[in-house]
Specification:
- The protein is of the alpha/beta class and 307 residues long.
- The protein has a single domain, classed as 3-Layer(aba) Sandwich (Rossmann fold), CATH 3.40.50.
- The chain is 36% helix and 16% strand.
- The strands form four sheets. The chain has a six-stranded parallel β-sheet, with helices on both faces. Strands 6-9 form a two-stranded parallel ribbon.
- Helix 3 links the parallel strand 3 and strand 4.
- The radius of gyration is 19 Å and the shape is globular.
- The N and C termini lie far apart (44 Å).
- 47% of the residues are buried.
- It binds NADP nicotinamide-adenine-dinucleotide phosphate.
- NADP nicotinamide-adenine-dinucleotide phosphate binds next to helix 1, helix 3 and strand 4.
Length: 307
């Protein structure tokens, strides 16, 4: 019998990390699709040996600690999710953001290279400026508008051609204070929301991304991959959809423009950064529709709230 594939996960305490560690262990995390498999394969309980490291357990800005972790554990694959993700805060905290997203990613690529592990590093649609006017393909030039986007782009540049870079966008999972929870809280407490309708993108449900990362850990293709749920949307459309799922009608969500946001967010975000996933779909099954993924998150939240 083959030995299990040893996978080290950085940022294991984050919204994608928690789901990924569950899925690698053969479990179905809350809100995950019971049917989505990019490669038609199921995950056996003993296929992977998982070492999930939280921020507390491994600070990726500490080059020696990263080297020590990889030399001690000798993983076959490193799935790198640790990141500074506070997009607006990063505008006034650039040094920390670059240390984590750029230097930290470089530390992992170097250590993976030295120890013979395959690195899968997760990046973002915010490496694009959103001015293309149509969906982005992997080979489009990057031109980030924010500190966060620049730091993630620099992290990509510190990776090697044999590493796999996954660009995801608008990630939302069952954990963390993401937009679906904020909207659902407002919908169930009788409030209303205003969301921008002039930023277009693709949703990536954390558990669907995690399941896709497992397929990449098996195939280790290298290069850049856009991985996101199917369909393009806006923040307003997400709010309206979540409101309707929770029984709210036409007057729950109001569309506004980015210029109307008050106070104005510190970071500039791309107007249209939806990810073209043709490359993914030509090799693997398409991720579920974003509406399916968001509905799972809302259902899971409702189940947790039910005594
Ligand atoms: N969230 C999105 O909308 C989005 C969109 C596109 C791409 N992505 C990318 O997807 C990946 C996963 O994102 P996510 O949504 O799961 O993010 P998340 O929930 O913010 O998780 C990131 C994790 O990284 C940890 N971390 C921060 N600094 C660290 C350091 N120096 N060393 C080790 N760990 C550190 C954080 O720990 P603490 O909280 O304890 O600091 C947190 O647990 C990231 O690469 C992110 O850039 C996210």
């Amino acid at each position: 019998m083959n030995r299990p594939t040893r996978v080290l996960v950085t940022g294991a305490g984050g919204q994608v990390g928690v789901d990924l560690v569950d899925i690698l262990a053969g479990a179905l995390p809350p809100g995950a699709s019971a049917t989505y498999s990019p490669d038609d394969l199921s995950i056996e309980e003993d296929e992977f040996e998982v070492l999930g490291l939280t921020h507390h357990e491994l600070d990726i800005t500490d080059r020696d600690a990263v080297n020590a972790a990889l030399h001690a554990t000798r993983p076959d694959v490193v799935i790198h999710l640790a990141a500074y993700t506070a997009v607006d805060q990063a505008e006034t905290d650039a040094a920390t953001c670059f240390a984590v997203n750029a230097t930290g990613t470089g530390n992992l690529s170097d250590a993976a290279h030295e120890t013979g592990a395959h690195l899968i590093a997760v990046s973002t649609d915010y490496v694009y400026d959103g001015r293309k006017g149509s969906a982005y393909v992997e080979t489009d030039p990057t031109n980030p508008l924010s500190v966060y986007g620049s730091s993630k782009r620099d992290g990509e540049l510190l990776c090697r051609p044999e590493d796999t870079i996954v660009r995801a966008s608008w990630v939302m999972g069952v954990r963390g204070k993401n937009v679906v929870h904020i909207i659902a809280d407002r919908a169930t407490s009788g409030g209303v929301v205003r969301f921008v309708n002039d930023q277009t993108g693709t949703v990536t449900v954390a558990s669907d991304l995690a399941r896709s990362l497992v397929t990449l850990a098996r195939t280790r293709p290298g290069g850049v991959w856009h991985v996101a749920n199917t369909g393009t949307t806006t923040w307003y459309d997400i709010a309206d959809y979540v409101g309707r799922l929770l029984g709210r009608g036409d007057h729950f969500a109001t569309p506004i423009t980015t210029a109307e946001l008050s106070p104005a967010p510190l970071a500039h975000r791309p107007e249209r950064s939806d990810l073209d996933t043709t490359k993914w779909r030509s090799r693997f099954h398409a991720m579920p529709e974003w509406t399916d993924g968001v509905a799972r998150l809302v259902r899971d939240r409702a189940q947790r709230a039910t005594p």
